[in-house]
Amino acid sequence: MSGARRKEEPPLSHPQQHLVANGGGGALRGSVWGKALRSDSAWEDKDEFLDVIYWFRQIIAVILGVIWGVVPLKGFVGIAIFCLINAGVLYLYFSSFQQIDEEEYGGTWELTKEGFMTSFALFLVVWIIFYTAIHYD
Amino acid sequence: MSTMFADTVLIVFISVCTALLAEGITWVLVYRTEKYKRLKAEVEKQSKKLEKKKETITESAGRQQKKKIERQEEKLKNNNRDLSMVRMKSMFAIGFCFTALMGMFNSIFDGRVVAKLPFIPLSYIQGLSHRNLLGEDYTDCSFIFLYILCTMSIRQISVAFSSGGAKGLRNPYSRSAEEMTLVPTSNRGVRMGLVKWLNNRMKAPLPQNKCMDQTDSLPPSTAGSFIKSDLCPVLCKGTRQTN
């Protein structure tokens, strides 16, 4: 397939090829998430990587909120463990999995706090909802 | 479904609706206007250009190059300021609407326990989480606490979606425009947004320790000139912000 296409069209650079082949913005987002799930990807656009960190944080917040609400995990222990897991998982992700240079993003602290408050609020909402629904319904 | 859980779901739904309403008002009053689109495009173009220039600048770069960068930064700040002024309109409209809505919801949910908290909040938060509720059980959650939490998360996420990812929350040159209208009823106000923007600017270096007195080809902007003179001593120092 790709060989036949190359005869008809001039060769495209990889990101463009991805866009044309799959139709636009959705494909671009797909390639960002593809990069996010691949180890040691190159991140030319710093904002892109920070977006990935931001959204990963929200996903972790929802997952932990559901688990904490179902188990249930109560008290400040739940909050403390959430903070540890949230910060720890993302730290391992950007330092070990992606192996990025933290200094390019303003240091480990900047990466750690990226989207943290939003994810904390989201975690609390999901935790409260599931806790109320399952244990007080 | 019990009444309490129904209230919980209702409050989340109200929060989503108010987030959409806020974005809708902002779209009608701001986003679809030509002035806003022009300014936003200008700010994005200038900030990209500036970042590229800063990356290529070396230690031995001439004074002229550094002056050029300084002028571009000033232009960008002025455009950013104008952009924020355009968004002020929507902020007032949203503030007014939400004050009315909050009054209405407060009276509807007054004295009702809308959720159970899986933790006991700190004493200074109990004033919010246990507001207008009877009894001493501080795991009872009031409307306002849950609403604020929902707003903090949902509104931020809806803005992140509408600004093309969390970029709009983060670009040091356009952040004030986003921050100033984010979550108007929640933890960030205009003042906080401006303070954060200033903090970010203080981290970015100015090529020389000079105040912005150059007025060469800068577009006239009363807001810009006011800011220029007022922020001069603040902005003429700082270390590089590397993100």
TrEMBL record, chain A:
Residue ranges, annotated region (Disordered): 1-25
Alphabetic keyword roster: Endoplasmic reticulum, Membrane, Transmembrane, Transmembrane helix
Major localization listed first in the record, in broad terms: endoplasmic reticulum
Organism: Terrapene triunguis
The gene coding this protein: RAB5IF
One Pfam match: EMC6
Statement: the UniProt record of this protein carries the keyword Transmembrane helix: yes
Ranges annotated as biased composition (Basic and acidic residues): 1-11
Classification via PANTHER family: GEL COMPLEX SUBUNIT OPTI, PROTEIN C20ORF24 RAB5-INTERACTING PROTEIN
Membership in a protein family: Belongs to the EMC6 family.
Protein origin, superkingdom: Eukaryota
UniProt protein name: RAB5 interacting factor
CC terms in the record's Gene Ontology section: endoplasmic reticulum membrane; mitochondrion; multi-pass translocon complex
Topological category with respect to the lipid bilayer: Multi-pass membrane protein
Subcellular location: Endoplasmic reticulum membrane
Ranges that cross the membrane: 52-70, 76-94, 115-134
Matches recorded under InterPro entries: EMC6-like, RCAF1
GO biological process terms on file: mitochondrial respirasome assembly; multi-pass transmembrane protein insertion into ER membrane
